[in-house]
Give the backbone structure.
Amino acid sequence: MAFVDYYKTLGLEKNATTDDIKKAYRKLARKFHPDLNPNDAEANKKFQQINEANEVLSDPEKRKKYDEYGEHWQHAEQYEQAKQSRGSHQSSQNNWQDYTYSSGDEGDFSDFFESLFGGARGRGRNKQTTFRGNDFNAALNLKLRDVYTTHKQTFTINDKQVRITIPAGAANGQVIKLKGYGSPGINGGPNGDLFITFAIEDDAKFKRVGNDLYTTEEIDLYTAVLGGDHTVESFSGKLKLKVNPGTQNGSTVRLKGKGFPVYKQEGQFGDLFVTWLVKIPTNLTEKQKELFKELSNL
């Protein structure tokens, strides 16, 4: 995995303070948030990089390891143990080159690993140091309608076909972990994991708040005054609603259980709130204007 400069990601120098890191993260997170950049894969990728950099640099312990070990900061403890073992072996044996940590070809380890162990290579006799692979992060762009029902989706990560089940009711920004789909381990160590963040686009007609949905429906003046029936669209299909006589512009009706599914609670739904928008007629004929005047006089 290529080295990632977390300081550069946040636009900071290495001597940045905790407040500097917090301010830089907040500024960039607002700029590249998926909600503000729908259908922008690059912005979503940048958002993930910003979150990763902040997660490491805002934690004093992680930052200390990162400053010392760079991209290998997650394996800091293993490296320290390996160096101690190497030092102990050197003090007890003048010719320590028989003692190696490598068991693969020349390209198995990074330059960092080679410098750590003095470039010693060959076939390990008694001891091999294993390391867990790094974790990967990815964003999965979805539409609101995509997460109304449970479905399976296949995508490619590092030339591997990954098929996941996306449960109904998943939330924007929600993260799931796929164990073992990260970077391969070293010397037989376990693979890292893959963390997928759902980036759910806003819907043009419906606004989601928790498990509830909100929408606006236009009705004509006559239906608002006299009452009648009106059909509205929902994620579950068309719904026929009764409009009460004298319905006011901006009034809202609540349809219980017609909202968004509750995450991993089969059969449970939020509510749908419909706000009436009364359309005022325009381009009236003279006759229609006279009728309205009569109504006004009454």
Q: What stands out?
A: The mean pLDDT is 81. The longest strand covers residues 212-220. Residues 49 and 239 are 43 Å apart (CA to CA).
